[in-house]
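Lab manual, section 2.4: Encoding a predicted structure.

Procedure: take the sequence of the chain (533 residues), apply the prediction step described in section 2.3, and record the output as structure tokens. A sample record is shown.
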Amino acid sequence: MPTFKLDGKDIPFEPGDSIIKAAYRQGIEIPHYCWHPGLSAPANCRMCLVELMPAANQRAMMLDIVEWDPKLGDYRNVQKPKLQPACQYPAVEGQEVRAETSKHVLDARSGVQEFLLLNHPVDCPICDQAGECKLQDYWLDHQKTQKRMRDEPVHKPKAVVFGPTIVYDGERCVMCTRCVRFMDEVAKDPVLDMRERGNLNEIFVAPGKQLEGHYTFMTEHVCPVGALTTKDFRFKARVWFLRTAKSVCQGCATGCNAHLDYDPRSDKAYRYRPRDNEAVNKYWMCDEGMLSYRAAHEGRVIEARVGRQKSSVDAAIREAKKRLTDVPKESIAVVLSAQHSLEDNWAVLELAKTLGATTIYAAGAGTGYKDDILIDADKNPNTAGVRELAPNAKTYAQLLDDVRSGRVTHVVALGGLAPRNDPEDATALGMVGTLVVIAAHEGAISDAAHVLLPATSWAEHSGTYVNRQGLRQIAEKGLAPQGASKPAWDHAAMLGRALGLEIGWSKLKEVRAQLGGSAPSAQTRSEAVTGSP
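Recorded output:
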């Protein structure tokens, strides 16, 4: 692979890479605002300027400038190298590039940073971006000087509602145009643009339009400062109080890699952010996926129930044992869930085998909207995982038909969600003699349960999910289990032991050993770049 030198270090690059992208692949950050690895490079922020050293027998391109000489007490004519934007200049084999080791580059960065802050309101104490703002980071790294301009700064529109999800603050904007380019190049909905010139620049929405659709949250995510905020997260939390778990979006079969940000003091999830993975979701997530973090708290099953009455888990297990003892094996059905992890489904499937149940069904959320960008019609994160474990599993509709015909009288089900909420389906579920459900979320199946056991959500235990590409991806535990909830694989083991069955697992690592070891995540298997844009 060809290489060039950056501050004396060899940097490999692929054909077509710019200097900044080749460095980014190696985990080296050249400061930038406008550049993003998934977008075009306009080179308008000038923060990524680097010095290119001339090859042998070549002269450096120089610029004539005037520079203050404190000894003379006057300006004098000098020359300096013409710096180039690393986001646009291509990587060339054998090229020598200076960034951190060039005084000219360091001076340029300081000047750009000071220029960007001339009219900035510096309202960090009330800004949602505080703590993860590039203006703050780069001021500390590349400027560290007080503001010299004493004139009244230019004032621009504040708290402008761009649409149902996004609010814009023009005074904080550094005109990087990331949001404009994302809507044009990725979302294919070019409703944002830049108007006016110079220090009057601002981002605006096309007349008669608003910022809406399925990818509006990404405009806030790509914003390197606090100019764009989401109504969902705005004024909700300070990022330095939050911790992050590497997660997998539960919204559909795409399985976008995500960061789940939560406050460990209250065990509350506050947001999802995309986690870069070029093989799965690149750098993006859809709005529905970024809002799916709410399911960590909403619609949850956190207490056991027997009938309609709250119960302890032990009492619910005893009731389930009573109902499932001495039942003909051929009348027992087991339902897997595409909403639950591979570990949960494997444990319930093993429980089915030890029970002697041979009829396996699969359920989950129904289909929905899809597009050609990220969103899949399958609204389950683990359909491929269920298919992998039980390729011949029958559908939820077939389960209802078998209940109506009397072939199935007892059901052990994983997951509370069904593909549809039809009154006729509810009537059929009501015909089941015994319905034992292990679920994290309420739904049509959990509503009909005679015994309901509370399972932890994906955010409360480590679980493996197989996306539509067949990639096994691990969602890490972030939150503590709510209420009496436990991992579904743990409930399955408890139920099996109560029934006198031989259960061979009691820990997560034992379940994963049966699945072929700890599954590697797509993040480590296929991520092409590291770092953060």
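Check your result against the sample. The CA atoms of residues 46 and 368 lie 43 Å apart.
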